[in-house]
Amino acid sequence: MEERWCKLKGDPDKKKKARKGKKGKSTKASIVGVGLDNKDGHIRITQGPNFQLIGGSEETHEVMQETAVKFNEELSKRGKQLDDIGKNEFLDIMNKVT
């Protein structure tokens, strides 16, 4: 299963953690996980700091949750926020936790 990650527009009240986007609007980095192997009809959605997880079988959704939690733990160990890291550090952390 291929996973895709993107940034979502954030809450404009959280400007201290947000960066300015292309048109000057406030944005906040977020990890989005989408599971596409659901065959039981359940809708699974989990939101947490820095992530939103949608769909997947029970097993897939659990793996996405575990990965997101470990990712946030590694960010905390490094004393950083998701907004503070670049592509290479993101990939380094993701490789470490998966």
What does this entry look like structurally?
There is one protein chain. This protein has 98 residues and is of the alpha+beta class. It has one domain (8-97). Helix content is 33%, strand content 21%. The protein has helices at 58-78, 87-97; strands at 8-9, 19-20, 26-28, 31-35, 45-48, 51-55. The strands form two sheets. Strands 1-3-2 form a three-stranded antiparallel sheet, with no helix packed on it. It has a three-stranded mixed sheet with strand order 4-6-5, covered by helices on one side.
List keywords for this structure.
98 residues; 6 strands; three-stranded mixed β-sheet; single chain; alpha+beta; three-stranded antiparallel β-sheet; elongated; disordered N terminus
Helix share of residues?
A: 25-40%
Order of helices and strands: EEEEEEHH
As an assembly, this protein is single chain
Give the uncertain stretches in residue-range form: 1-9, 11-18
Mean pLDDT: 82
Instruction: Give a quick account of the main beta sheet: strands, pairing sense, barrel closure.
Output: 3 strands, antiparallel
The count of strands amounts to 6
Distance between the termini: 14 Å
Counted by DSSP, the helix tally is 2
Please tell me how large the radius of gyration is: 14 Å
Q: Kindly give the count of domains.
A: 1
Describe the strand arrangement of the main beta sheet, using strand numbers: 1-3-2
Shape, principal axes of CA atoms: elongated
Pairing-aware structural class of the strands and helices?
Answer: alpha+beta
Proportion of residues in extended strands: 15-25%
